[in-house]
Amino acid sequence: MTRTEHRWLLPSAPADHELPGDRAGARRTARDWAVDIAAFLCAAGAALPALGVVDADPATPDGVVFADVLIAAASCCALWLRRRRPVWVAVALAVVSAVEPAALGALMVALFSLAVHRPFRPVASVGAAALAAAAVQPLLRPDPASSYIASTVIGMLLILLVISWGMVVRSRRRLVLTLRDRVVRAESEAALRAEHAQRLAREAIAREMHDVLAHRLTLLSVHAGALEFRPDAPPAEVGRAAGVIRDSAHEALQDLREIIGVLRSPGEGDEGNRPQPTLATLPALVEESRAAGARVTLDNGVADPAGAPAATGRTLYRIAQEALTNARKHAPGAPVAVTVTGGPGDGLTIEVANPAPTEPFDPVPGSGQGLIGLTERASLAGGTLTHGPAPDGGFTVLAHLPWPADAQPPSPGPG
């Protein structure tokens, strides 16, 4: 999958109308049922005192009291529809509350739900209608125990308080969703970067294997040509050439098994004639680092470095090269110890360790892609690689690569 396709799969930031609970078709969860029941009970509890005041007034006809009870019950039941039609429920309750004081509690719940689940524009429009109803209701149904101004101010303050509370809850939910989306995006981008680094490592390994394979085939061609043009060569020379051809063919088959499935970057020039690093060239790498000013010590405990398999030696060389580069970048001036041990049947182990730098320096930013590439390279070679900070503040890279007991030594080049 390409980087563009990955970006299409990344979650987008939530739109202003896509908060949890905004969608009309969403099924109620257990939490939603608990919230709806609590909202219904709160609206009913707020309606009871208003109905008690109306019922206690002897001038109120019984028919009006009965109608108030029915309207209050219908207002509370209308709250069950607020998830599907929050705007229309709030508008209807605002109109009803203009003539029915017992519907004020249901209106407050509807306004809070509207402010939580809808953007500012519809909330402001419905809130303006509710404020107008709060000014009209004391005129049509005045409270005997309170003045018109006091009733109007209290009603408007309650409406503004509920709407403000709902908008705060909505803002907090949007913040949580945004932070969650950023975390998901960061993890996705990190996965993309790691995948890109692994792909680059595979391409580099494929190029190196291609170069080695070209060298093997060149050996086959040279020695086969020698046998063709010198059919009268001594038997010892013919046998030696045949042995080189056999070993080169065997190693070429091994390289073909490794290169299958690894993609080689298109558009790059043919570099098949360049020499490939091996375990035997590791001392030269250390000398290069010393010439550059690094304090590097090499402890090579391998009895026969030239006998190590070419692919394994090349991988070990690349690990040492990247580890020394990282040490120069992130711990300049600190001594670096390179230790190599192992042999046929036991495998090869390399450890590159450095203590914490003692001199101040300007840190070089790093992305960690080199270490990801080293891990991928060691994994493709059948080994393992670990890295991390040491207890003394330094850094250690440790890798183990296989070296079969019956591995064929690298073939010599044509003479």
UniProtKB/TrEMBL annotation:
Q: Which GO terms describe its molecular function?
A: kinase activity
Histidine kinase/HSP90-like ATPase domain mapped to chain residues? 314-403
Keywords from UniProt, A to Z, are: ATP-binding, Kinase, Membrane, Nucleotide-binding, Phosphoprotein, Transferase, Transmembrane, Transmembrane helix, Two-component regulatory system
Q: Which Gene3D superfamilies match?
A: 1.20.5.1930, Histidine kinase-like ATPase, C-terminal domain
UniProt cross-references to InterPro entries, sorted A to Z: DUF7134 (IPR055558), HATPase_C_sf (IPR036890), HATPase_dom (IPR003594), Sensor_HK_TwoCompSys (IPR050482), Sig_transdc_His_kin_sub3_dim/P (IPR011712)
Q: What is its EC number?
A: 2.7.13.3
> Which residue intervals define the domain Signal transduction histidine kinase subgroup 3 dimerisation and phosphoacceptor in the entry?
202-266
Answer yes or no on keyword Transmembrane helix: yes
User: What is an example of a Pfam family matching this protein?
Assistant: DUF7134
Q: Which residues cross the membrane?
A: 33-51, 63-81, 88-116, 148-169
- In what residue span(s) does the DUF7134 domain sit? 30-173
Family annotation (SUPFAM superfamilies): ATPase domain of HSP90 chaperone/DNA topoisomerase II/histidine kinase
Q: Which domain of life is it from?
A: Bacteria
The catalytic activity, as recorded, is: ATP + protein L-histidine = ADP + protein N-phospho-L-histidine
For this protein, the record's PANTHER family field holds: NITRATE/NITRITE SENSOR PROTEIN NARX-RELATED, NITRATE_NITRITE SENSOR PROTEIN NARQ
Q: What is this protein called?
A: histidine kinase
